[in-house]
Protein 1
Amino acid sequence: QDLPGGIKQRLALSCSLIHDPKLIFLDEPTAGVDPASRRIFWDLIRDLKEQGRTIFVTTHYMDEVEQCDRIALMNRGRIDALDTPLSLRTKILPGPVFEVTGKEPAPIKQVLEAIQAEGEIVRFDPFGRGFHVVSTEAGLSNKTKQTLETLHCNVHKINASLEDVFVYVIGHEK
């Protein structure tokens, strides 16, 4: 009972391997575990994969999801998307993703809401100190970029993250 979270999780994994299973289910294996222990745990998972085992992992950590071969994005008990990480990032979103950051998030949000109402932005979500903006297929117009720059915003096209995809998939159904 007094073991640290990382040790408890590794012990639980070790116990599950006693019977040499070919199929392993891990439910939130790194929840409550420090970053160093998470890395060790994922090294163990990769070792098991290299031994030919199939591993199902449920997690809320999108950086962990990136390490999986195939991903099922679930929402309300239903699989909304199933594919490889690369395919999900490139096929699900309707257009490029931009990161918009600036000194004052409130005015940026108001401008993004106005641009979204005009149809150039599909959705935007807070991300770190700014916003991730999913645009239409055409991307952001020069006019939009200039409007954001007048607010002293930095606008950069970025690679979509799996978090962007997940938020789009679950938010798109609302």
Protein 2
Amino acid sequence: SPCDRLFRSDVDKNGTFTSPGYPAAYGPFMNCNYEFRGHGRERVQIIFTDFVLHHPHDDPSEKPHHPWLKQR
């Protein structure tokens, strides 16, 4: 996908990133993948300052279910 991003610890140890068009919502049918690669025992810490999982057609009273959000 054109919005996929790869972050490598040998290039940068710190930084920021945003989704396409932030703070507006993703465009229709977008599938963005963010991959973080480290070496050895390095770990990734992500601190979100703004994180919205609401889909415009969701019923706000329902429990969020987002099968498209993956943590690996």
Protein 3
Amino acid sequence: ALPPALRGIGYVPQDGALFPTMTVEDQIGFALYVRRRAPQEIAARVRDLAEMLEIPHLLRRYPQHLSGGEAQRVALGRALAFHPHVLLLDEPLSALDPQTREHMYLLIKRIRQQTRITAIHVTHSQQEAEALADVVLTLDRGQVQCRATGDQSPVSGAAEA
């Protein structure tokens, strides 16, 4: 099996899973740092992602000083930093309040359009799946029960965006 650094998958867990002792800037640049990229390249990529994610004002903060939505944006930036081929989003909106969820929904949609990245978006929300996905797969005990385009209406399940 390939080591994680070579798989080309950016992962955003449900809870963000940020490193408590690292600033937002270091969180986003971490994947590039472990891949031994030049400091100038790391700084430029972090700056670009911070702008894209609307968080440049947070770069010096630590996770305990972030809201839930801010933490999810940082986790998304960390996942995108190394230009993955696939983005795996595991319930990225489930723990957010309705207003923050709507903002993150629009942000994810815009980033997918800008980057043209393939995303697998896991959710239990039919509405979220239909709104964000190009293709929706409904799973039951690991088996595909239904496949539909985002504008069709499967019963519920996981979305592949």
